[in-house]
Specification:
Layout: E1 3-7, E2 10-13, E3 18-25, E4 33-39, E5 46-51, E6 58-60, E7 68-73, E8 78-83, E9 92-99, E10 113-114, E11 118-123
Parallel strand pairs: 2-11
Antiparallel strand pairs: 1-3, 3-8, 4-5, 4-9, 5-6, 7-8, 9-10, 9-11
């Protein structure tokens, strides 16, 4: 059983930056691919970014490509989402997730464990 705890959310002005962190415990972290998803009020949860077990492969939603960077530190059991050039439409609850599998990482059904989420609010 893997536990995931997100942190780093908050209120930021448009154009600003935030770094989200996700701390993992209870499993062998390096065995899991990791992803970030988000859900805005009244909308479905959507894929943001994912990274494979080693950190050597990353994947992004088109809406965040070039602005967000996902990374992981297997020695610290941490995954990060560096968000820059934030827009009001990035406002959402951001969730960290862990996947045992290696495929279809853009789909939330591929993930086995989820954190509770952290709120990101971008003001215009």
């Amino acid at each position: 059983q893997v536990q995931l705890v997100e942190s780093g959310g908050g209120l930021v002005q448009a154009g600003g930056s935030l770094r989200l962190s996700c701390a993992a415990s209870g499993g062998i972290f390096s065995r899991y691919a990791m992803g970030w998803f988000r859900q805005a009020p009244g909308k479905e949860r959507e894929f943001v970014a994912a990274v494979n077990w080693s950190g050597g492969s990353t994947y992004y939603a088109d809406s965040v490509k070039g602005r967000f960077t996902i990374s992981r530190d297997n020695a610290k059991n941490m995954v990060y989402l560096q968000m820059s050039s934030l827009k009001p439409e990035d406002t959402a609850v951001y969730y960290c997730a862990a996947a045992i599998g290696v495929d279809y990482l853009k789909y939330d059904s591929s993930y086995d464990y989820w954190g509770q989420g952290t709120q990101v609010t971008v003001s215009s």
